[in-house]
Amino acid sequence: MNPELLSQPMPPSFLPQVSVVVPVYNGEKDLPDLIDCLRSQTYPREKVEYIIVDNNSSDRTPTLLQDAVQNTPEITLRPLSEPEIQSSYAARNTGIRAATGEFLAFTDADCRPEPNWLLSLIQPFVNPKIGIVVGEIAALPGKTLLEQHSEREETLSQKHTLAHPFCPYGQTANLGIRRSIFGEVGLFRSYLTTGGDADICWRILKETEWRLEFAPSAIVKHRHRTTLKELQSQWRRYGKSNRYLHELHGIDLMREFDQREYLYRLSRWVLKELPLNILKAFAKKATLADILSTPIGLICVQARSQGQREANLSETARKIDSL
Questions:
Q1: Contact 170, 161 (CB under 8 A)
Q2: Quick check: pTM over 0.85?
Q3: Is the model more confident about 148 or about 77?
Q4: CA–centroid distance for 193 within its chain
Q5: pLDDT tens digits, residue range 167-219?
Q6: Edge to edge, what strands does the sheet with 211-222 contain?
Q7: 2-16, 56-70, 124-138, 282-296: which range is least confident on average?
Q8: Residue 194 near residue 200 (C-beta atoms within 8 A)
């Protein structure tokens, strides 16, 4: 017997039917790369369908989806439409209802799943007690200052959401859920515009006996924000999410900085951190992102606080859709 064959890992035997659900809105720039990533998945092609739900796009997204069906016969692409409710959660619900798989995997149109993503995400479900599997989100290579700052802080990593003090959860950019669970707790809240990933995970973990598992090798890559406007919008959305989850689940609101705290942190940066990091930069041990980390971080804190103050959860956003 060849000893080299004994040392090779056995292929996984747990290969259930899976539906991958991807909402998309005005995604003509992202769809070609996304489709290429789906084509490159190592999960058996006959056991997975890729449901891409157009959420009332005004660009060439619908046309590109139809073209992809014709030009990518090697995988099962199912383009659907959710034109009524402008929300990624409504689009995901449309995909869930149409799904035929026993397990659902979620990602986003601007994500780039690695080839073994789906295979790694599904394997923990071999444990019949696991209802949610969370994969990791890594950064696509970026050259701008703000991309480097976000990568330094690992802004997108699921380690932050998994360590949430109220209850762990996974972002829908990389999340797997047993389809049957939606029959127990309901679907996403269609009119919610942010925070729906935490909401669905918390409903599952708080209302049922299902457990969550982290699959660090199930990786999707995502591009960080490149402009200050995009970064502020991202952090305002985080603040809105926290307000909505406070209303829905009673979690603590994030503490807002007062003027004195902003001034203290900026003063400490100018007097202590800035000189130290400049010296490190001369020694090639610090980057511009290291030098400007504090002021950029304070801009993010301010945007998050603004989002939390301005958020207003509508009554329709409280509604839980049914399967």
A1: yes
A2: yes
A3: 77
A4: 14
A5: 999 999 999 999 999 999 999 999 999 999 999 999 999 999 999 999 999 99
A6: 76-81, 48-54, 18-24, 103-106, 175-178, 130-139, 211-222, 111-113
A7: 2-16
A8: no
Alpha helices, H only, 154-291 = 158-162, 181-185, 196-207, 228-249, 259-268, 274-282, 288-291
> Which CA distances in Å does 11 have to 44, 49, 253?
12, 21, 46
Token pair, residue 46, equals 């006959």
- Cα 167 to Cα 164, 243, 252, 278, 282: the distances in Å are 6, 16, 12, 39, 43
Structure tokens at 253: 């609101």
Q: What is the DSSP string of 93-139?
A: HHHHHH--SSEEEE--TTEEE-TTHHHHHHGGGGSTTEEEEEEEEEE
CA torsion sign, 307 to 310 to 313 to 317? negative
The crossing angle, in degrees rounded to 10, of helices 293-310 and 228-249 is 50
Which of 220, 242, 235 lies closest to 165 in space, CA to CA?
242
The pLDDT > 90 percentage for the chain reads 88
Beta bridge partners of 80: 53
If residue 48 lies in a helix (H) or strand (E), which one and from where to where? Answer: strand 48-54
Read off the pLDDT of residues 3-62 as tens digits, 9 standing for 90 and up.
333 344 556 789 999 999 999 999 999 999 999 999 999 999 999 999 999 999 999 999
In sequence order, the β-bridge partners of residue 81 are: 54
In this structure, what is the dihedral angle of CA atoms 173, 141, 227, 299, given to the nearest 10 degrees?
Answer: 80
